[in-house]
Amino acid sequence: MSDEDGTRRNVTHRAVLAIAVPIVISNLSTPLLGIADTAVMGRMGDPKYIGAVAIGALIFTMVYWTFGFLRMGTTGLTAQALGAMDGEEIRAALGRALLIAGAVGFTLIALQWPIGLAAFALLDGGEEVESLARTYFDIRIWSAPAALANYALVGWFIGLGRANVALVLQVFLNLVNIFFNILLALGLSWGVAGIAAGTLIAEVAAAAAGLAIAARHLRFYPGQWTRAKLMNAERLARTIAINRDIMIRTIVLMFSFAWFTAKSAEAGTVTLAVNSILLQFVTVSAFFLDGFALAAEALVGKAFGAGRREDFDRSARLSTGWAAGIACVLSLFILVYGGAATDFLSIDPEVRATARDYLFWAALLPVLSVWCYQLDGIFIGATRGAEMRNAALASSALFLALWWLFLPYGNHGLWAALTGFNLMRAASLGFYYPRLRRELA
Questions:
Q1: pLDDT at site 2
Q2: Same domain, 224 and 315
Q3: CB neighbours (10 Å) of residue 117?
Q4: How many domains are there within the chain?
């Protein structure tokens, strides 16, 4: 059997699920950590502890996700090197990502004072809550290099098609975090500082475990890390350009969702609560769909590296077929059970009643958004950061235009603008798709 035939046979339903299923399980395990943190702080006897951890964790979510390119860019570059059977570049893709993670992480530590100043100026939680949140921030910031290294390691393993390793690392991180949070926050009565220290320990431990596993995998690829290879001007410039464009794209998307939340708050407490609950349904749906987008990243990247259009087409078709089917199930589930889920999440009669008026928007989003999720995965795998950046900018511009146009329709108009935003993300990337495919002719 030729290598070409062998590669083609690897683009199967089983190959898609081998990547998607571990990622879905990994995604679903993550909320357990937030639940555990809330439960631990809830036993401290004062809601200020829950609020402090929530604000502190939000700051790091916002800061770290800005550098999410370390995961996305590394996946695409690694998958392409794998498809080209370039062991040296597989090694270098990880090495460059870790160098960037270290540089950014230590920069964040060095700039912790202005970062904290800006973050707490934007997030006003009251004097007592802010004081505790600052304690959390001051401790956890020291894990920045390890946390960003975890992004790079997970991206590298997914690029290799080893999503099972990414799952193991995520579950390991969560279990270590929960153990030390309970031990330090409750057992040693460190409170909020214990939660921060537990998270720091977990992130460092996960990075160490990831590096150890990566070292074992590197034995299968010839070559070694050399300064000349890691600092190759052309490769390094490409890596930086891809990561820069993905970073811009991520910031633009974060702005759009922050705008949605801000306008929800301006509409009143009930609207904010309703939209927050409904967005949770959308977020949980994204946990499922993200697995298939990541499968597209890895398989499309491998096809691009090998220069095989047939593999590219099959990877895009199979991963998107699975994602579309799951999206339909998720939309139906939200439509049927969303009301009951809202009742579980809120005891306020007005919130319960109002949520049902807007439930259909949350139900529509999975089946309408799956296309932009999948196209994101395809373009990440093909390492086309510029197209993703342009699509994000165009989509956010349309989002703001639709929000202004639909102002008379209140919250329905806000949800319509968000829906249009995701449809535009798909349409704009779809515009580039034929040209992307022709590159493999």
A1: 39
A2: no
A3: 9
A4: 2
